[in-house]
């Protein structure tokens, strides 16, 4: 298996992607192709005192870099020799099994959709991060790819999310919930009411295990859902609200722990047991975010990814490829088409 | 000043509203009318060993109670002798200066809009809770009243929110941000792009201090905005995501603190300094949530409000009445009307 890694994507590129590739090679044994400015990659190796890349990792030169300020819709085309464009073309041409980038989400989504293309029958690709819940984790889909959705898109997200949760969370018959502001079917906007009806019918037809609306407050419950369905705008607000609130509280907590000598000593006594808590809110632990609905596996790693996060994302991509997720979706895509009655 | 309190609203009614009224009477000196089943209220007094209500608090009997399962749109009309309907009619008739209920938000909003009515020129009433941010607090508007919004509604929310922030947060020229998934004006759904344009023009016209889009992750910043503008669906998702994440983390933290004797001792050393942290995430501290845009002050207290939370909400309502918020909105309502050009 070969993972294609965007060496120039993210706030800490190329240093951390290069280090992450070496880490992942040791841990997961997969081949890795670093795509990016060869000289910059070599410089990282020199600085780290590594003469050359270990066997199993190679470099494909790409002279351009897609920046956050570039127009996400056209960047891949405007910069044809960018690491992202070159890497995705390699993926499309079968020169690797998955592509990972910590670069611009918008650019990666446009480039992925236009270069790798969607699975026939899938209306829109969606971003599906794994988020912490009281039950462990859940798949949130869509978390930002599609700010405008039709009910049909969202039903397809639900079905893809269900497959993905089965695979990554190992849950049989995953519980699928529709993100909403109340549990009653009549809650929310017109779009959400329609999706609720369609998912209810899809559930009755045995296509997925729809458990109804879920409010963000219920995600901390021990029997929280496995899949949270949302349009990309609302899903992204949820994701960022969770991240923002966690950062806010952790900062407040740090202030408490460092107030005075007594609290510092108190923290020392607790510190050894904080690991699970930290892990719970550490975005590095969840790996890359899958872009579901494309013909080949494409992953977005967090923009601030360090080597550990990159390596973790590579590990998750390996799992994804091994599980044959894309083939599974393509095989079942007929069941994703809604009958006239269901629309 | 007289505050009309729904004695039957909320999970802990009538006990906690009755206790909260007595607490608030002592602290704020306002007159309070408890509306609800007289026998049930008297029973609370007996159980608490209080023979009769202190001077300044009286009871108006209302035989019915609006339950969470009642249809929120019609409950006030179906149950004409409910505490909510009777209390709001008293408010409308000038028999009090503000109404507070911890009952169903939906029912209160419908009843408030239909009994008390909107300020002429205001298109929709909105729910405007105070939420914690890195800068202290911000007004979130709308947090759940209107699942479907036009750009015009949202611009009025922004203007009302700006007035309210000036009053409750004491900020001059409050910074108004539009909740969104990115900082660029092109981000988000069609609705949000239009609102961004309209608020930019309103800012240029000197009607408010619009600072652009804000992402939920930026709310923990020390220079966070004072007003967060959203449609009611997205605003409610944000509010509940903040609440849910905070509860989730606090639960995780409790587990850490109670792991073993060592962590318990560590917690004892920190405990004395946890006050500020707890206050930061305690919904009881923010008082009731104002329903802005109505002709008289109506407040929703949290459904799980205890006596302290009710008393705090009464205190905030007193401030609101003293500040003359409704008159200020009514006076400036002309500037809330968008010119044809602005639409």
Describe it.
Two copies of one chain form a homodimer. With 343 residues, chain A is of the alpha/beta class. Chain A has helices at residues 15-28, 38-47, 75-78, 83-92, 105-116, 151-168, 190-204, 232-257, 261-271, 275-281, 307-323, 325-336, and strands spanning 2-6, 31-36, 57-61, 98-101, 126-128, 130-133, 136-141, 175-179, 209-214, 227-229, 289-292, 298-300. Chain A has a seven-stranded mixed beta sheet with strand order 3-2-1-4-12-11-5, with helices on both faces. In chain A, helix 6 (151-168) packs across helix 7 and helix 6 (151-168) packs antiparallel against helix 12 (325-336). Chain A is globular. The mean pLDDT of chain A is 92. At the A-B interface, helix 8, helix 9 and helix 10 of A face helix 8, helix 9 and helix 10 of B.
Layout of strands and helices, then pairs:
Two copies of one chain form a homodimer.
Chain A: E1 2-6, H1 15-28, E2 31-36, H2 38-47, E3 57-61, H3 75-78, H4 83-92, E4 98-101, H5 105-116, E5 126-128, E6 130-133, E7 136-141, H6 151-168, E8 175-179, H7 190-204, E9 209-214, E10 227-229, H8 232-257, H9 261-271, H10 275-281, E11 289-292, E12 298-300, H11 307-323, H12 325-336
Parallel strand pairs in A: 1-2, 1-4, 2-3, 4-12, 7-10, 8-9, 8-10
Antiparallel strand pairs in A: 5-11, 6-7, 11-12
